[in-house]
Amino acid sequence: MANARVCTNCAHHFAITARERLDHLAGGHDEWREIWTELRASDPLQFVDLEPYPDRVRKAEQSTDLGEAVVVAELEIEGELCVAAIMDFKFMGGSMGSVVGEKIARGCERAIELGVPLVAITSSGGARMQEGVLALMQMAKTVVAFEEMADANLPIIVVLTHPTTGGVWASFAALGDFTYAEPGALIAFSGPRVIEQTTREKLPDDFGKAEQQLLNGQIDAVVDRRDLPARIGKVLRICHRPDLAAQPPLANIISQASGERMGRIADAVAETITQTLPKLPKKIADRVAKAIEPRGGDDR
Question: What CA–CA distances, in Å, run from 229 to 19, 37, 234?
Answer without folding.
Answer: 14, 24, 8
